Amino acid sequence: MKLLRSSICVFVLVLVVVAASAQTGIKTGAEQTEKYLPLLKGKRVAIVANQTSVIGKTLVVDSLKSLKINIVKIFGPEHGFRGTASAGAVVADSVDAKTGIREISLYGKKNKPSKADLADVDLVIFDIQDVGARFYTYINLLAKVMESCAENSKELLILDRPNPNGFSVDGPILDMKLKSGIGMFPIPITHGMTIGELAQMYNGEGWLANREKCKIKVIRVANYSHDMEYVLPIAPSPNLNSQQSILLYPSLCLFEGTIISQGRGTHFPFTVLGNPDLKGKYEFSFTPVSIKGMSETPLHQNKVCYGIDLRKYDTVELRKTGQINLSWIIDMYQAYPFKEKFFDYKQSNQMGNFDKLAGVTALKELIIAGKSEKEIRNSWKPELAEFKILRKKYLLYK
């Protein structure tokens, strides 16, 4: 009877996977259960996951538990395992209400599993959807988990997922003097790599702490190449709640280090830009308010912001050029009346320092100096060309 129930579960799981694949042609690593279930049998498994870690519409944790895989703990990232915590909010350890599995937060008191956390673990799974931007924190979490696995002789199984911005390799290479929680490695703003490819690069380039090497196995995405369009089925975080926001994020997140709102405190974040002081400069307006689970204390809360509406911006241009858009930040800097405040991220109460987001000090300096987009791009062109050559060594997809 137990064997029959297990077989039925596998059959249902396969049906869900087939249905999802029929729509996209792409099969994520998680969906290819036949390639990794044998690796999990008889092992005590920990999983680094969030709300994007799904097979069809079911969380990987729930699916694996139904298949009698022994999941002993869940490691939750920023926003938590269920993805409901606001950006930047400390997430506490807890017990997952649905599964009863202990959840350990890696976004709060610690940013990597401890030796004690891994003592009763044989294998760790990493399955989180990334969006392809250096300052999106999940790729830093990947490195920290790899370090812990290496230090404690644990294998890491990566269930790879497509990069929705995989068509773009652009921006300045991070100056390691500006290394921070929003940029840990010498890569550009958009790296054009998947989690699995980045893991190979971290190992290959000796970027982990003490040049540790993590034993990894990547379950590759099937039927995928970097230039393919991939619409995320689940929002990767509360403020990236649409495909438009995900595609605009690499360009608009730079505004986090400025006095300009990117729409946090609206239901369409990262698709609009504005500031109260731009009244008369732009016709479009919006008013940020406190929204629980998204932005509870947004910049310019309850104030009318004037600026740019990008909700209907044709992202085909981004895909065609493979470049982040600099014209918006150049134009808004030129339009802003109090230029000495524009990059004052402390005053703006934003998520990051502009130089750390950009990865270099030169970008801010060139914008202030009134340089053209072409001149700014030329400033990072040589190093970007070198990165593109390095990147090729670690690609799993065309």
Automatic annotation (TrEMBL):
A matching Pfam family: NamZ_C
Keyword terms of this UniProt record: Signal
Signal among keywords: yes
Signal sequence segment: 1-22
Residues of the Peptidoglycan beta-N-acetylmuramidase NamZ C-terminal domain: 247-397
MF term (GO), any: peptidoglycan beta-N-acetylmuramidase activity
Domain Peptidoglycan beta-N-acetylmuramidase NamZ N-terminal: start-end pairs: 45-243
The keyword Acetylation is assigned to this record: no
Name the UniProt record assigns to this protein: DUF1343 domain-containing protein
Species annotation: Aquipluma nitroreducens
